[in-house]
Structure formats: structure tokens, C-alpha cells
Write a structure and sequence with these properties.
The structure is a single chain. Helices cover 8% and strands 36% of the residues. The chain is mainly β. It folds into 3 domains: 169 residues, Immunoglobulin-like, CATH 2.60.40; 483 residues, Methanol Dehydrogenase, Chain A (8 Propeller), CATH 2.140.10; 135 residues, Sandwich (Immunoglobulin-like). It has a 5-stranded mixed beta sheet, with no helix packed on it. Strand 15 and strand 16 form a beta hairpin. The termini are far apart.
Length: 892
């Protein structure tokens, strides 16, 4: 990270220097000839930052001479090899140890050279930059297109120069501007520019040649995604139909329960998807062919349609073939060119050969870019995102052993500094066949006959390892006599390794002759692993593998086969169902098992599918194979994603097939979910930025899998509770991914889709999205309850788990009076990002208790005397009342 940051810090310095250098060149005197030769004084400059710096921290060193050499250029159309040469950096450590770095040629036309190192001693380092005398050796003869005014410098002398700096190194690390940590909450694109370390979880799926095997069909395994993260659970973000799918219904079908045709063998519905900047691009099916519909852009996380276009509206089919993200690194521009491109290839333009047309991925607008006469060749991704083509040819001369190998480079054809000399990204028409569009062209002496750049038959791509070597093949290694269309010969085949090292490109490294495979076997180079220096032969009929060295062509291991079982022979139908990743060779197919071999030794490490629970693909009577066939649809983030299908499945489709996520190192099952693949050998499942997308032909819907947002609510009593009584804390934990708002899901779960545990995820997602029965014993999400009491103490008071309605409750008896803030937290999982909520309640003191009145115990006398006295008084009152009444009657 420090290295990247240092480069960013000095970017403005480089820009300033470039402008200064350009001005300096303009001020150079222009004459027709220099007689005698000029001696031009050079000035050396050297910087090192930061200083002081801590032991072990990265230091950015930059060195340059005051001006760029006259007319030095790397721009297409004017590119040349006019460069400063023989820079030397000498680093003397505090203990006197001396190390040197040399640059015979400084590739940057400005003459700026960078170097990074990490000092390992405390004290003062001395850095010394030396530039020896250099004579200008370029003119219009050896540098076509060089102006006469520049050719006049031929023979002029640029004097030597040097510069020295002292770098102070201390024990204590200096402060760095570190990027923010990786996200712990739900995030979307764009990624804020300072979060540069998020590149470790973010990625794109640009199709071939950037993702090898990205478009599997007809026997080609799925693609290998080397970047970013991949889903660790079967959580569904959204689902979206691309045609009528699933069961037709009614009795007007040949077979009860018959389904719509799902595309099966040769009419696949989800072809060559591309993902850029969190957007999924692909062509919708139209009719039976599986292609021909609108080209759409959908949000990877929500399924929202961003745009759609008719890719044949111009009368020419212009369906994108690959995504293009080129990292521009020029004196005045650094970074990925705006929006990237969606590139469509066509041969429909008369007289223009293969043509590339491009779309803006953000809008779907067809740009003015029109790249004509794009050459053929073996395609490979360049280190900066450029599209490279390595072309081997003898120009039709079959008797001449001299062949030519050239490298065509897309970055020399279009984009900023394009061949037209314009500075626009969306250039107009460019002729891609010009010599300026090639990096180099070298001759190679080969045996007479036909040669070709080797290709892995598994769909892994050409046998090209940039900066190292490529493999050329002459002939075939063995063809079975009974195979339709097989090439059968007794002639040996030849392999030649050619250097791609910049210092020796085109040099023959080794040659080997291979006899035809024994016992009438069909033999191919199935895969190779350039990182470990192995290429692998596969013999179809005997189902064996052999490992050979890319260093010398010698056999290292093999033959290797697998233990025989009742289903093993089905893999005869799965020729070249192989893939390589993480130092493992994977073999799979109709047998239903995934085998992992050590690529270095050929040793069988583990098998997935023939074990018990969590390691079983057993199908019983559901398929004629006894097991569910398994095919790799993608490899990413240390996981293998397997999909089941077959060549031409009957309708109704076999029940019980699944999408499976397997640990690529151990073979342990991570998760599974119901899924039927979309082509005869599984299907494609692009993976980018933590999400996997696939077409489930059980219902012909696109599903997106990955980690989604959650929502937590909480309530507590609104009325104050007296101390000593319990209160009930309640709430909900729900899944709020975009798919939960779809019509069916919103109707079935009007209060929201409950969030559930990892153990319950697959069955729950099948219930929510795939019309499976509601699973029993579903476990909800665990919620942690905390309070901040009236004294300011933050306390965790317990945990609880939500039920299948998404509701949780927690009973608690407060222990002090006053106001409480109660906080509920869902920590998240592999399926959900975390969420939290809070509310408050109050606890009052207990109500005061009334004091009772004391009573006296009556004696026996009281019990008889008091009532007697009361009776006498009542009699007196009555007698008085009668006398008063009589007196009133006697009055006249």
C-alpha cells in the first residue's frame, strides 16, 4: 500500500517535470547540422521520500536528467526508441553495504526512472545517481518519421552527470496515510478513491482473454477469476426471468409436467456475460437460438435495469465480446480510461477485415470508435489491461523454415495518444494493421512444416505466459481411430518453447519430439500451469493424465488415473473437463466427482462427491448416472463453483441438481442450493466483487448470490416500569436485499423476509425464491441486547434468536431506576451485513405502601354492654318521635 501511495504523492511532481521538459525541448536550438558535434551539458536530479523513514517502510526514489532526449516518444503513430540509457543507482547502507541498480534503457520517454526499496538499518543511507555520457544515435534513417531538425542531433554528446542524496532511517515508523479498512457494511459502486485497498475484494469479469474459460460451452469448463471475493453463502440478492421457464402446466403437452425448453446443448440462454463496475451486461434470448434479443445492463446487486439497446439496430450484429479496462500511464494521464469499453467484433464491414466497435458501458451508446483490420492471432491479456495478440506466420512460404512472431498491442491502436495523433478516448477510424500497432516482430527458425501457438483443449486459452515463454506445436499427439473427425497419424509431434523475455524474445528455449499416444488414445494438452511450470497431457480413452515441464519438455509425473467406481466410466464423455488453480489440477464430469491432484507431483489429494453428508453428489434414481454430473462453472476466491447439467436433458428436468461451492484447497463443501446448469457441461457463472450470477434453467431466471443488507427494529415499553418488574424487549431482523421487494416475495412476506442463520440459508432461500416447501426447524438470526443505564454503564444483558417470522423478544428485569437506552445488534454473517437499532425505556421507584390503622382487642364486657346502650338510645329516639307527632295532631 505504501508503494502505491508514494507513487500517488509524486504524480504531481512528475507532471510538473514533464511540462518543464517539454518546454526545454521546445527551446532547443534547431539547425540543419551540427558540425562539429555539440556537447550538451546534462543535469542530474534525485529524490527520495519520505525522509526520515522508519525501518522496513517503503521509500520512493526518482531520478532523471533535466530534459527528455529530443523527439523521444511512445505515442502510437510516432513511437520510437529514443531513450536515456545506462542509469545507475548506488545505495550505501549505514554499515557500508553497497547495492546497485542499473537501467540499460529508461523506458519512460521523459527519462524519469523510479525505484522502490525498504531500508533495513537505522542510520543514514547514501543514494547516488550516475548518468554516463550518451551520444545521440537517432536520425531519419534508423528512426522513420524523425524530423530533420531532430535528426540534426545525430552524434551530439550529452555529458555525464550525477546527484547524491542522504536518506535518514529511524527505528520509529513515520505516519502514513493508510486507506480505510475493508467494508463491514453494505456498499455499492463507486468505491471512494481513498479506499484503494478495497481492490482486494472488488473485481470485474471482462470475458476472455482476461478471464480464461469465461464463456464455457460445448466441453469448455468455467472461468478462473483471479481477483476479488466470491460469495460464502447461498444468500440470494435477486432473481429475474429472461424467458418463460419451468413447468408449462395443463395437459396439452407430450409429457405431464413438461417444462419450457431450457437451451440445453447448443442454444444456451446466458451467453458471455460481462461485469464492469458492479454492472452485469449480457444479451437476452430471442426465440429458440438463445441469442438475438436486446443487450442489457443490470445492476449486479439489485437486478435493476440500467439500460437496454438493440445490438442489431444498425443492421449489423454488434454484440459485445469482451470488456476493456486499460490502465493509461502517460506523462499527463494516469489511471483507467473513462468508463472502459464494451468491445464488439464483426466482419460485416466489407473490405475492412475484422472490425472492433465499442459501447460506453455507462450509457450503452455506440461510440465513434471504429477499429479496422484487427489481425488474427492468439489473444492474451496484457499487464495494464491491453489486449495483446501474438501472431505466428511464415507468410505462406511452406519451404522456408523461417517463421515470424509478432505482438500486436491494442493500446497502440486506440485511446488517448492514438495513432491519429488526437487526444480523445473515443477516436474515430483506426487501421489496426499498421506497423506502429505492434510491439515487436522477430524471426524464428523452426523445423519445416506447419506450426501453431499451442492452446489448452480445456478452453484455458493459448499456451502463452507473458514475460516468460510460449509453446509452439507441430502435429497432433494421438487421435482415436474410431472418433468421428479425428486426425489419425503415426507421425511424431513436436513442441518448441519460445522465449518471451524482453531481453531474448523469439529465442528457442528447447525442443522436444513426442510419439503418438499409445494404445489408440486421443491425447491433448488439456491444461497448463505456467506458475508451476507444468503442462498436462490427457488421454481420453484410458482417462489418464501426465505432467510435463515447461522448462525443458521432460515428463515429471504420470500416468495418473483415479480409483475405479461404478460411475467412473461416465467421464469418458467428458474429454478435457480439467482446470488448474492454486497449484491443483481439477478433473470432473459425468462421473459426478471432483478430483484434485497436486499439479507438481500428480498425486491425488482429495475427491468431492463420493462421500457422506457434505461430500455427496449421490442421485439415486434421479439421473441415469447414479450421481449428479458436476462441472466447474467458475473458480474464484479460493472456491470452486460446480454446476450440474448434461448434453441434452429430458423434460421435465432431473430433480435435485445443485449449484455447489467447494473449498478449492480441501474439497470441503461450503454451501449448495437448487440449480440446473445452462449448457451441456454446466454453464457460466461470472463472479465479481463478491457476487456470483448464474442462469438457473429450472425456472429460467438469473440469480445473483452474495452478501446483502439486513434491517433490525426494536421496541420497549412506552410506560415507565416500576423497579423490580420485568420488561419485554421486542423487534425484528429482516433481509432487505432487492429481491425481497419483488412481487412474489413482497406478497408472501408483507412484513419483510426474515433473516435466518447460515445453517438454514440454502433451504430458506429455496423457500423464498424457488417455491420449495417451508423448511422445518429454521433458525433465525442471533441478536445481542445491550443497555446504557442511568449511571452511564454500557452492559450487554443477553442474546436471543429471531424466529421464522423474523421476530425476537427478550425478557429482562432492570436493576436500577432511571432512563435506559436499549440497543439491539445483529452482527451479520456470510449472508448479511450487520444492522442495529435502539430505543429507550424508563424505570421508576416502587410506589409507597399505605400504613395500616391499629385495632384494639375487645373485652367480654365491651362485647355485651356497648350493644345494650346503643339499643336503649334507639328506643328513646323512637319514643320522642311518636310524642312529637301526637302533639301536632292536638292543635286546633
Amino acid at each position: 500500500m505504501q508503494k502505491l501511495k508514494n507513487k500517488t504523492i509524486v504524480a504531481m511532481i512528475i507532471l510538473f517535470l514533464t511540462i518543464s521538459m517539454s518546454a526545454s525541448i521546445i527551446l532547443q536550438p534547431t539547425v540543419d547540422a551540427h558540425t562539429p558535434s555539440w556537447t550538451i551539458v546534462s543535469y542530474a536530479y534525485l529524490t527520495a521520500a519520505p525522509s526520515p523513514v522508519g525501518v522496513g517502510q517503503s521509500v520512493a526514489v526518482f531520478m532523471w536528467i533535466d530534459t527528455a532526449l529530443v523527439s523521444a516518444s511512445s505515442s502510437p503513430g510516432s513511437a520510437n526508441d529514443i531513450r536515456r540509457a545506462n542509469y545507475q543507482l548506488t545505495i550505501t547502507a549505514p554499515d557500508g553495504k553497497v547495492t546497485t541498480q542499473n537501467w540499460p534503457v529508461v523506458t519512460d520517454p521523459t527519462g524519469i526512472q523510479s525505484y522502490y526499496f525498504s531500508p533495513d538499518q537505522v542510520g543514514n543511507y547514501t543514494l547516488k545517481f550516475d548518468y554516463p555520457q550518451q551520444i545521440y544515435r537517432w536520425n531519419s534513417t534508423n528512426t522513420p518519421g524523425l524530423a530533420a531538425t531532430s535528426s540534426a542531433y545525430y552524434g551530439d554528446i550529452f555529458t555525464s552527470a550525477s546527484a547524491t542524496q542522504i536518506l535518514t532511517v529511524q527505528d520509529t515508523p513515520v505516519a502514513t496515510s493508510n486507506a480505510n479498512p475493508l467494508p463491514t457494511e453494505y456498499w455499492t459502486y463507486p468505491i471512494e478513491g481513498q479506499n484503494y485497498n478495497w481492490y482486494t475484494i472488488a473485481s470485474n469479469w471482462l470475458s476472455t482473454p482476461y478471464i480464461l474459460g469465461a464463456n464455457p460451452s460445448y466441453g469448455i469448463p468455467g472461468g478462473y477469476q483471479p481477483d476479488g471475493s466470491a460469495p460464502n453463502s447461498a444468500h440470494i440478492m435477486w432473481s429475474k426471468p429472461i424467458q418463460f421457464g419451468g413447468v408449462v402446466g395443463g395437459n396439452n403437452t407430450n409429457i405431464a409436467g413438461e417444462a419450457y425448453y431450457q437451451g440445453g446443448s447448443y442454444n444456451t440462454r446466458f451467453n458471455n456475460p460481462i461485469i464492469i463496475q458492479g454492472t452485469l451486461f449480457f444479451q437476452l434470448p430471442f426465440g429458440n437460438a438463445g441469442t438475438g434479443g436486446d443487450y442489457v445492463a443490470w445492476d449486479l446487486k439489485t437486478g435493476e435495469e440500467i439500460w437496454r439497446i438493440n445490438a442489431t439496430a444498425t443492421g449489423i450484429s454488434l454484440v459485445p465480446s469482451f470488456g476493456y479496462l486499460y490502465s493509461m500511464d502517460q506523462p499527463n494521464q494516469h489511471g483507467i480510461l473513462p468508463n472502459g469499453l464494451l468491445v464488439a467484433t464483426t466482419t460485416a464491414y466489407a473490405g475492412l477485415g475484422t472490425v472492433w466497435r465499442t459501447y460506453d458501458p455507462q450509457t450503452g451508446v455506440l461510440t465513434p470508435m471504429n477499429i479496422t483490420n484487427v489481425p488474427g492471432g492468439s489473444n492474451v491479456a496484457g499487464p495494464a489491461g491491453e489486449y495483446l495478440k501474438l501472431i505466428l506466420t511464415n507468410y505462406g512460404n511452406t519451404t522456408n523454415p523461417t517463421w515470424y512472431l509478432a505482438e500486436w498491442n491494442s493500446s497502440k491502436v486506440f485511446g488517448t495518444y492514438a495513432g491519429t495523433g488526437t487526444s480523445y478516448w473515443y477516436t474515430g477510424t483506426e487501421n489496426a494493421s499498421l506497423p506502429s500497432c505492434y510491439d515487436w516482430n522477430v524471426s524464428i527458425n523452426l523445423n519445416p512444416g506447419t506450426w501453431a501457438i499451442g492452446t489448452a483443449s480445456s478452453g484455458q486459452g493459448p499456451l502463452i505466459n507473458l514475460g516468460d515463454k510460449l509453446i509452439l506445436i507441430q502435429g497432433t499427439f494421438g487421435g482415436h481411430l474410431g472418433d468421428f473427425g479425428a486426425t489419425v497419424t503415426q507421425d511424431p509431434a513436436n513442441i518448441t518453447a519460445i522465449s518471451l523475455n524482453p531481453s531474448s524474445v523469439g529465442q528457442v528455449l528447447w525442443k522436444q519430439t513426442f510419439q503418438q499416444a499409445p494404445d489408440n488414445n486421443t491425447r491433448t494438452i488439456a491444461v497448463w500451469d505456467p506458475a508451476n511450470g507444468i503442462f498436462v497431457f490427457e488421454d481420453k480413452e484410458s482417462m489418464t493424465h501426465y505432467g510435463y515441464s515447461t522448462t525443458n519438455g521432460q515428463q515429471i509425473w504420470g500416468p495418473v488415473s483415479v480409483p475405479k467406481s461404478l460411475s467412473t466410466d461416465w467421464n469418458y464423455l467428458s474429454l478435457d473437463q480439467d482446470n488448474v488453480a492454486y497449484g491443483h489440477l481439477y478433473w470432473f464430469g459425468y462421473t459426478g466427482f471432483l478430483y484434485s491432484f497436486d499439479i507438481k507431483t500428480g498425486a491425488l489429494e482429495w475427491t468431492y462427491g463420493n462421500g457422506g453428508a457434505g461430500n455427496s453428489t449421490y442421485a439415486g434414481t434421479a439421473t441415469p448416472y447414479g450421481y449428479y454430473p458436476v462441472f466447474i462453472s467458475a473458480i474464484a476466491d479460493g472456491k470452486i463453483f460446480l454446476i450440474s447439467s448434461e448434453h441434452s436433458p429430458d423434460s421435465p428436468l432431473y430433480a435435485g441438481e445443485q449449484l455447489r461451492a467447494i473449498n478449492a484447497t480441501t474439497g470441503a463443501e461450503i454451501w449448495t442450493i437448487s440449480n440446473f446448469g445452462n449448457c451441456m457441461y454446466g454453464g457460466t457463472s461470472p463472479v465479481a466483487s463478491g457476487y456470483l450470477v448464474t442462469d438457473n434453467t429450472y425456472d429460467q431466471q438469473i440469480y445473483s448470490y452474495g452478501k446483502g443488507p439486513s434491517q433490525l427494529t426494536i421496541t420497549a415499553p412506552d410506560m415507565a416500569a416500576p423497579i423490580g418488574t420485568s420488561i419485554m424487549i421486542k423487534g425484528t431482523v429482516t433481509d432487505i436485499s432487492a429481491g425481497t421487494k419483488q412481487k412474489a416475495q413482497a406478497a408472501n412476506f408483507p412484513n419483510g423476509v426474515p433473516a435466518v442463520s447460515e445453517a438454514s440459508m440454502s433451504a430458506w432461500m429455496e423457500y423464498v425464491y424457488m417455491q420449495k416447501p417451508r423448511p422445518a426447524n429454521t433458525i433465525g438470526a442471533q441478536v445481542t441486547i445491550s443497555v446504557v443505564d442511568a449511571n452511564g454503564n454500557n452492559r450487554e444483558i443477553g442474546t436471543t434468536t429471531s424466529d421464522t417470522s423474523g421476530t425476537f423478544s427478550f425478557n429482562w428485569k432492570p436493576d436500577i431506576t432511571g432512563k435506559y437506552t436499549v440497543i439491539a445488534q445483529f452482527a451479520g454473517s456470510e449472508s448479511y451485513y450487520p444492522s442495529s437499532a435502539q430505543t429507550s425505556f424508563a424505570v421508576d421507584p416502587a410506589a409507597p405502601t399505605a400504613t395500616p390503622t391499629a385495632t384494639q382487642t375487645q373485652s367480654a364486657a365491651d362485647m355485651y354492654f356497648v350493644p345494650a346502650v346503643a339499643a336503649i338510645i334507639i328506643v328513646i329516639i323512637l319514643v320522642g318521635a311518636v310524642l312529637a307527632l301526637l302533639m301536632l295532631r292536638k292543635r286546633p
